[in-house]
Write a structure and sequence with these properties.
It is built from 4 helices and 2 strands; from the N terminus they run αααββα. The chain has about 100 residues and is mainly alpha-helical. Strand 1 and strand 2 form a beta hairpin.
């Protein structure tokens, strides 16, 4: 387009973009509610939701890796993961107990 941008201004734009991208995203309450529901009804899927909320990272254009969700949502994700693991163990034990009788 024939517009020249000074290198200092270009570097500032890149730093602003990386700062904007490095902020964690809110997960949304519906995602958390769905995770708890899946933890009770379909524990393997609940474990997937909880793990993704608790441990998912994103890679920035400069190569740094940051958590995708904020700290409060990551704690909720870890709780969902633990609850789903407990429910899965209970389902397996109940199935083994029913199968044995």
């Amino acid at each position: 387009h024939g517009i020249s941008i000074p290198s200092g201004e270009l570097k500032r734009f890149q730093e602003e973009k990386i700062k904007l991208l490095s902020r964690p995203e809110p997960s949304g309450k519906s995602w958390i509610y769905m995770g708890y529901l899946l933890a009770f009804l379909a524990p393997p899927f609940g474990m997937f939701v909880g793990f993704s909320m608790g441990y998912m990272k994103k890679t920035l254009p400069n190569g740094q890796r940051r958590f995708a969700y904020n700290e409060a949502d990551r704690k909720e994700g870890k709780r969902i993961l633990m609850l789903a693991a407990i429910c899965l163990a209970c389902f397996i034990l109940a199935w083994l107990w029913l199968w044995k009788t």
